[in-house]
Amino acid sequence: MYILGQYIPQSSVISRLDPRVKILSLVVLSFAILRADGWTVLLVSLFWSLVLYGAHLMPTRLFQALKPLLFFFVLLFSLHLFFSQGTPLFPGYPWLEEITWEGLYRGSLVTWQFAALVVGSSLLTMTTTASELICGVERLLRPLNRIGLPSHDLAMMISLALRFVPTVLDEFNRVKKAQMARGMDFGRGGPVRRIRGIAGLAIPVVLGALRRAEELAWAMEGRGYQRGHRTYLHELRLTRPDYIAVVLIFLFLTELHFL
Amino acid sequence: MIEVRDLRFQYQEKERAVLDGVSMTLKDGEYVALIGANGCGKTTLVHHLNALMRPTSGVVSVDGLDTLDDRQVWEIRRRVGMVFQNPENQIVGMTIEEDIAFGPGNLGLPPAEIRRRVASSLELVGLESYGRRVPSALSGGEKRLVAIAGILAMEPRYIIFDEPTSYLDPASRQRVLALIAGLHKRGLGIIHITHNMDDILDVDRVLVMREGKIVRDDRPEIVLSQGDWMRQQGLGMPAATALLWRLKEMGVSVRTDILDFEDACREIAAWKSHPVESVA
After folding, report:
1. Taking CB atoms and an 8 Å limit, are A227 and B107 in contact across chains?
2. Do A163 and B93 touch (CB under 8 A)?
3. Which residues are paired to B160 by β-bridges?
4. Measured between alpha carbons, how far apart are the two ends of chain B, in Å?
5. pLDDT by residue, tens only, chain A of 259 residues
6. B83 pairs with which residues across the strands?
């Protein structure tokens, strides 16, 4: 099973890049995607293909991962295709006169933009471990410390939220099974009964999560959390490939600007 | 040395004291068991030993550092490590090595030193190859070992284990107990909270708590073999001792001050030559 955005352990030029460079590149390229029009679409697509090649990711695997979003792509395309004013694509066919050249173009462009954004963010998470990502976010947010926003605490919150996703899911399944063992049938009944069933599941899971959070806070304090200056197992350092990547992206954006 | 003198603690002024005049010591390198029925105040007491909680009155000091002195709190927490009951709730890292690095990172150590401590802690608990794994992929026993490694990386002088073998299968339990014994041999002072008396046969002393007080402080062979008294406290006995007590109640004249399984077998074998007085 291949999951969209799941980290794939491998050694590639892209996976070895500093997470800060990857995050900032994604932000900048996302703007480029949203502003793309006409020929720039082809240029951005070509650039994305080169990045995919550099990341050693097979396009087939990426398409497979995008499959679950196919419905949204079709919906997005159809909405633009059928609800855009302009020159009819099939003149003389009254039942097809809603379909316009402009609708076809806008539908294709918006769907491409959406797909390119999904591919971009998936590329980031497929080539970067969650801890590298958090480390990168923490370093990028460090200037905010000056205005009283603790970057480390923000990164810690993201990290703990991700860390406890499997734990809370486990708890959810345990509570669900415990209730099923006592006769609860989540698949039957009307909407009111189903909502009651969900509340019956959510309350113990939320209470459990709160209890867990309290114990976690004890454990973190016991291990010196918030003592003051802290250091990290891996310190991020920009290397030559990172500088080359920054230059390439800068050149690419300059090229886009002149098109 | 950890020293507790006349410790009183209550959550709110008019409430009943959870700890009521507790005094105890843990000498350097000593291995002490802390037992008592649920709700007697064991966990509250040990939370005072690394300054997670502060006394309402009385004194708690670690190597002369007072837990009420805010400037000493972080040094006290470094010296006194705490392994909580549920390891799932104390693993904070996305990977095992990051979790173990959490404590040394909080101490502000250089990355090279953090890496050294992560490697040596993983080696001590026997999980050398687990550094890059994610916590959710580990078994209950392995999570417990990771939680211990996270504490060891802070290079404490004392470690408190709060029911370290609960919910573990026999093999994992043995592994954790062997690790605790190994740490004791290395000179660490240890407090071991448990409800399983077979886990604490080798301790130096047993402290028994009841209703916020320490009611007994003695050697394990003396405390754990007193069947009637232990039952009154709502506590069990080591399996071998419980068997000998049952035999004695059935009229078999055997010693009941034996804790070890092998010694109990020898005692029963020797009894073959004894006449059975009466069998209930």
Report:
1. yes
2. yes
3. B82, B191
4. 49
5. 445 566 777 788 888 899 999 999 999 888 888 888 877 888 888 888 888 888 887 777 777 767 888 899 999 999 988 888 888 878 777 777 788 888 899 999 999 998 888 888 888 888 888 778 888 888 898 888 888 888 888 888 888 888 788 888 888 888 888 888 887 777 777 777 777 777 888 888 899 888 888 889 999 999 988 767 788 887 888 999 999 989 988 888 887 766 5
6. B161
Q: How many residues does the structure list for chain B?
A: 280
Q: What is the DSSP string of B81-105?
A: EEE-S-GGGT--SSSHHHHHHHHHH
- Chain A window 229-248: which residues touch B at a Cβ cutoff of 8 Å? 229-235
Contact assessment for residue B82 and residue B147, using Cβ atoms and an 8 Å cutoff: no
Q: What is the ipTM of this complex?
A: 0.84
Locate A29 and state its tokens. 């390229």
Q: Tokens for B51?
A: 């300054």
Distance of CA B20 to the CA centre of its chain: 21
State whether residue B19 is helix, strand or coil. strand
- Residue B276 above 80 pLDDT? no
C-alpha of B45 from chain center: 12
Distance of residue B203 Cα from the nearest chain A Cα, in angstroms: 25
Domains and CATH numbers, chain B: 2-221 (3.40.50.300), 238-280 (no CATH)
**How many CB pairs below 8 Å do chains A and B form together?**
98
* Single pTM value for the model: 0.79
Q: Are A227 and B74 in contact (CB under 8 A)?
A: yes
Cα separation values, A5 from A79, A159, A177, B63, B147, Å: 27, 17, 29, 51, 29
Question: What is the rounded distance in angstroms from the CA atom of residue A226 to the CA atom of residue B204?
Answer: 35
Instruction: Name the minimum distance, in Å, from the CA of B140 to any CA of chain A.
Output: 13
Residue B82 to chain A, least CA–CA distance (Å):
7
Tell me which residue of B39, B94, B85 sits closest to B193, measured CA to CA: B85
Describe chain B by its helix, strand, coil percentages, rounded to 5.
40, 20, 40
The answer to whether A215 faces chain B, any CB pair under 8 Å, is: yes
Contact B74 A224 (CB under 8 A): yes
Chain B residues within 8 A (CB-CB) of chain A? 47, 50, 52, 74, 77-78, 81-82, 84, 86, 88-95, 97-98, 101-111, 114-115, 118, 135-136, 150-151, 154
